[in-house]
């Protein structure tokens, strides 16, 4: 499990994957359902919808899904780095 050891490049790739996957998923969902605005992929950790009446809460947040998304995308970035690492390093 040494491939999970953090490095600057793994963290950069993790952030890029995390943000881009969420962004592309959000674009896809918004193109299909115009009043739903998700954040997070594969788990939607934040979801808002509208139109919203004054005084109503039209969003929800799930911290477990945020944690799961983070773990999944970090493992994917660590795996990708291990696949493209030069032999002997």
Secondary-structure-derived class:
alpha+beta
Number of domains: 1
- Tell me which oligomeric state these chains represent: single chain
Radius of gyration: 17 Å
Total helical elements: 2
Shape, principal axes of CA atoms: elongated
Architecture overview:
The protein is an alpha+beta fold and 89 residues long. Strands 1-2-3 form a three-stranded antiparallel sheet. The relative contact order is 0.18. The model has no long low-confidence stretch (mean pLDDT 90). α1 (8-32) crosses α2. It has helices at residues 8-32, 63-84, and strands at 36-39, 46-49, 59-61. It is built from two helices and three strands; from the N terminus they run αβββα.
Layout of secondary structure:
Layout (H helix, E strand, L loop, with lengths): L7 H25 L3 E4 L6 E4 L9 E3 L1 H22 L5
Helix pairs in contact: 1-2
